[in-house]
Write a structure and sequence with these properties.
By secondary structure, this protein is of the alpha+beta class. 30% of the residues lie in helices and 14% in strands. Helix 3 crosses helix 4.
Length: 171
């Protein structure tokens, strides 16, 4: 059964969704969220704790059971995102080569744009081939904030968004 919880973060409220003790979604502010019963334990609690550590600068990698729903190609792209190191960016072309489809950078971009577990599967680390920031489901200011956060030069929170990540789980 799908369950969800909302947590505060420096980039705004995040909606976490789990099914069968696996994380299936992390919805950014302003995105529609599934209608599901609220939960607080298990993988939702572990996800909120690890995100809190990430935003506090104490975690670089996530150790969570993930089950994003998508095509085989999308899932291949999404899991390849987890291999992009903290604080590092790559282009859509780089990611296409990584998944063995060197001429599929547009398809990789489309899959990246449908990533249901943002931040944890770090689609924000994928940029244009010339180094420019390109689309992000949370908007380019959030993408810039996440990249700056990982590089250690960031404001405490995204302007206009709610504050601290520590102890941030809400019912």
């Amino acid at each position: 059964m799908l369950t969800m919880m909302t947590m505060r973060s420096p980039v705004g409220p995040l909606c976490l969704c789990a099914e069968d003790e696996q994380l299936v979604g992390l919805y950014l502010p302003g995105h529609p969220v599934p209608d599901a019963p609220r939960g607080r334990g298990g993988v939702l609690a572990r996800t909120a704790a690890q995100l809190g550590e990430y935003f506090a600068g104490e975690r670089r990698d996530f150790d969570l059971p993930l089950a994003p729903s998508g095509t085989e190609f999308q899932r291949t792209v999404w899991f390849a995102l987890a291999d992009i190191p903290f604080g590092v960016t790559c282009s859509y072309g780089d990611l296409a080569r990584t998944v063995g489809r060197p001429s599929a950078s547009r398809a990789v971009g489309a899959a990246n744009g449908k990533n249901p577990i943002s931040i944890i599967l770090p689609c924000h680390r994928v940029i244009g081939s010339s180094g420019e920031l390109t689309g992000y489901g949370g908007g380019l200011p959030m993408k810039r904030w996440l990249l700056d956060h990982e590089r250690g030069s960031v404001q405490p929170s995204l302007p206009g968004m709610a504050g601290p990540a520590r102890g941030a789980a809400r019912r």
